[in-house]
Design a protein that fits this description.
The protein is of the alpha/beta class and about 400 residues long. The chain has 15 helices and twelve strands. The protein is globular and about 75 Å long. Bound molecules: pyridoxal-5'-phosphate (PLP).
Length: about 400
């Protein structure tokens, strides 16, 4: 496997890392749409199964296109090893569940994407794994939740959808002192703006469905960590249980990485322009954008992130009816529960991604009935601002 020099800058790694050229010398990475591999001899086949020959065995285990995607992500993230998965949720579930057994304990920030919350709150306890949910912004709560059997801390930052920023180095320190590992869902930050492993996390997970594809085509996920964590906990679990990514999806995501930096920067610039244009709008009671000086954790954003976000959150006055009017009036931005796309997407979290929560839990997380999550795309910022301001007139 080719290895790019580690001292190239991220933009260069996004384009070149991990490329495996076939004998035809293709410019663009090849799509190896194959389930299996053939062997020159029974001896070679035996050696491969014994792990003495490094070639491929079966695409549930690995595949050259999938290996290129994983290697590019490894070198971007500064990880030692990675395993990709069919979806972001397959990656999150595997990263949390695979290393645990009945009797273990997990602490997670309450502000999680709905399906992640289901895994932590509903699924793990059914298998005898205890969970405690905390206010992720409150370091004392992380500390107090630690028990002798705590194995994993789990959080996302910035949070979905209220864009709070959690102190990754401080939470990692609490976890490590208590003998636990920290798993970070870095979807909202993207690898462009935040590197959780460098901040002290042990494992980072992505829904590659979001910015990594960024053009609304394929689902995918990836777990990145140390060689030891992937080898000990993830590799065999995924090989035997099979939440593998398809080579086609891995190829789309691999090609998506080439433009990730350019897209995330442009979408973040658009989000910042929108945030500035709407911050003092009379129909808006609250606006959150990591990157603005009025963000509640602005100092932390500066310390642990290299940039803001492609997302803006805002609360319209008038609750659900007003928020729905805004969504329905938007012409350019499309109503969707997705994010990170080249097309601007707008979500009403209280009735979609977070509708499963009890109203009081939603209120505690700041997800009011008037709250809107806006994922800025690659359109011209002025067109997006005009679209939003026209829709807000009707709110
Ligand atoms: C923060 C976060 N984590 C995980 C996921 C799950 O990803 P996927 O839809 O690829 O399974 C999503 C989005 O759906 C998300 O927003």
């Amino acid at each position: 496997m080719s290895k790019s020099p580690a001292n190239y800058r991220p933009e260069t790694r996004l384009v070149h890392s991990g490329t495996l050229r076939s004998q035809f010398g293709e410019t663009s990475e090849a799509l190896f749409l194959t389930q299996g591999y053939v062997y020159n001899s029974a001896e070679e086949c035996e050696a491969r199964f014994k792990g003495e020959d490094p070639g491929f065995i079966y695409s549930r285990y690995s595949n050259p296109t999938i290996a290129m995607f994983e290697r590019r992500m490894i070198e971007l993230e500064g990880a030692e090893a990675a395993r990709s998965a069919a979806t972001g949720m397959a990656a999150v579930t595997t990263a949390i569940l695979a290393p645990l057994k009945a009797g273990d304990h997990v602490v997670a920030s309450r502000a999680l994407f709905g399906s992640c919350l289901y895994v932590v709150q509903d699924l793990l306890p059914r298998y005898g794994i205890e969970t405690t949910l905390v206010d992720g912004l409150d370091l004392d709560q992380w500390q107090r939740a630690l028990k002798p059997n705590t194995k994993t801390f789990f959080l996302e930052s910035p949070t979905n959808p209220t864009l709070d920023v959690l102190d990754i180095p401080a939470i990692a320190e609490i976890a490590h002192k208590g003998g636990a590992r920290l798993v970070v869902d870095n979807v909202f930050a993207t690898p462009i703006w935040q590197s959780p492993l460098a901040l002290g996390a042990d494992v980072v997970v992505y829904s590659a469905t979001k910015h990594i594809d960024g053009q609304g085509r394929c689902l995918g996920g990836i777990i990145l960590s140390s060689e030891a964590f992937i080898a000990e906990h993830i590799h065999n679990f995924m090989r035997q249980t099979g939440p593998s990514i398809s080579p086609f999806n891995a190829w789309v995501l691999l090609k998506g990485l080439e433009t990730l930096g350019v897209r995330v920067r442009a979408q973040t610039d658009n989000a910042a322009r929108i945030a500035d244009a709407l911050a003092s709008h009379p129909k808006i009671s609250r606006l959150v954008f990591p990157g603005r000086a009025d963000h509640p954790q602005a100092a932390l954003v500066k310390k642990q992130m290299r940039g803001g976000s492609t997302l803006v959150g805002f609360e319209v006055k008038g609750g659900k009816a007003a928020a729905f009017r805004v969504l329905n009036e938007l012409k350019l931005a499309k109503i969707s529960n997705n994010l990170g796309d080249a097309k601007s997407l707008v979500t009403h979290p209280a009735t979609t991604t977070h509708q499963r929560l009890k109203p009081e839990d939603r209120a505690a997380l700041g997800i009011s009935e008037g709250f809107i999550r806006f994922s800025a795309g690659l359109e011209h910022a002025d067109d997006l601002i005009e679209d939003l301001t026209a829709a807000l007139e009707k709110a």
